[in-house]
Design brief:
With 402 residues, the protein is mainly alpha-helical. It is built from 14 helices and no strands. Helices cover 75% and strands 0% of the residues.
Length: 402
């Protein structure tokens, strides 16, 4: 069906005016009751001021500033109710007229669409016009006139629809403005509420980033990606700790985030004394803790940026520089070659060179086992909407949660 002259879709207006009016009256009554309760509690609080005794102190503790909160709630509810009642009144008047216009438009359009003939300018160019003055020409002219008349009737009814829609839209906008004015300046998010929202959003982003880095670590590897993955894990733990301090996360969430920081592939270092502990901590931070750990990161950064810069200087093209930058970054690392190193890392979580440097079969089995467990845990835990991870299930089982 054609749109209205104001470009609107011609459709029925939904909503139950009686329900809205009833809800408005209930809100007004609730606001009045809140105001009366606030006055009573304030009076009770004021009369007990200066009195001594455990019962009085308990009463003052319970009442506290409740009367202030009730008064504010009443001030929010009381003016909102009449706004809804006024809107419901307009809706009850406009809705039947607008819906009747919609029904008429549908009927007129159905009749118009079924009539032979064309509106002015709609006759296809490939249709050969009949000879002027012929019976066929006369019949075509009559069909076109009937078609045009029915379309004009449709447009007239569509204008009625537009008029009623304008009335409803004005009432709706007035109601929205009225509710906004009633609550303006009374409902505000505090600074920490804004921070809470930012942290919740940031944690969702970190889940996605963590998943991407996990896949990159499986296929690409290298010190840069390891450092980035460690930074993301530590940031996740820090933000989860903040949420826990704000009662937005439980202790289980903190434990799971802490486990995400642990480099399971380096668990063997824990048994190497203080030097081993330092190595384990360095692995947890992606090599950022020690000079020896930072050295390969610096070398890799120099190689990647150097490659991109050289391509840019040689070609003068930013695109060529960017392609060379990312091409170098995405190359697999290890002296054993791209294919061998990629296969080793995919199946074991260790590069070919790292596997070759391990001293014994048990060392290889334990390290590879931890790596595969860590990989599965990270992937499952970072999938948005997965509801947790392998670590999560273990922690919940230990805690006795269902």
């Amino acid at each position: 069906m054609e749109r209205s002259p104001k470009g609107r879709r011609i459709e029925r207006l939904k909503g139950n005016a009686d329900t809205i009016s009833k809800r408005g009256a209930e809100i007004t009554a609730l606001g009045d009751a809140m105001g009366e309760s606030a006055s009573f509690l304030k009076s009770l609080h004021d009369k007990s001021s200066g009195q001594k005794g455990e019962a009085i102190e308990k009463l003052q503790e319970i009442v506290g500033d409740t009367h202030e909160q009730l008064k504010l709630a009443g001030e929010l509810y009381r003016p909102t109710g009449p706004v809804l009642v006024s809107y419901a009144t307009t809706l009850s008047e406009v809705q039947p007229r607008l819906n009747a216009a919609v029904k008429s438009c549908e009927e007129l359009w159905t009749t118009f669409a079924g009539l032979p003939g064309y509106l002015p300018g709609d006759r296809p160019t490939w249709v050969v016009p009949p000879k002027e003055g012929s019976d066929e020409a006369t019949e075509n002219a009559q069909d076109d006139a009937s078609k045009k008349q029915k379309h004009e009737e449709f447009v007239a009814e569509a204008r009625v629809f537009d008029s009623e829609y304008d009335t409803w839209e004005t009432a709706f906008d007035t109601a929205v403005d009225g509710i906004g004015n009633a609550t303006s300046g009374k409902i505000k998010d505090g600074f920490w509420d804004d921070v809470d929202g930012f942290v919740a959003g940031a944690l969702e982003v970190l889940k996605v980033v963590g998943l991407i880095l996990t896949v990159a670590a499986i296929i690409i590897g290298g010190p840069i990606i390891a450092a980035l993955a460690a930074i993301v894990a530590i940031a996740t733990l820090a933000l989860t700790l903040y949420q826990w301090s704000r009662d937005d996360a439980g202790l289980t969430d903190v434990i799971i985030a802490a486990i995400g920081v642990i480099p399971f592939g380096s668990m063997g270092k824990l048994f190497g004394g203080m030097k081993g502990l330092r190595g384990f901590a360095d692995s947890a931070l992606g090599g950022l803790l020690t000079g020896a750990g930072r050295a390969p990161i610096r070398q890799e950064l120099a190689r990647v940026f150097g490659s991109g810069t050289a391509a840019f200087k040689f070609t003068g093209s930013f695109g060529a520089g960017a392609r060379n930058f990312f091409g170098t970054l995405l190359q697999n690392h290890g002296a054993d070659g791209r294919a061998v190193d990629s296969i080793a890392r995919f199946f074991t979580g260790k590069g070919a060179t790292a596997l070759n440097n391990m001293s014994s079969a048990p060392d290889i089995l334990i390290s590879v086992g931890w790596n595969m467990y860590s990989r599965a845990n990270t992937i499952v835990g970072n999938i948005p909407g997965s509801g947790g991870s392998i670590n999560s299930a273990i922690v919940h089982a230990i805690a006795g949660d269902k």
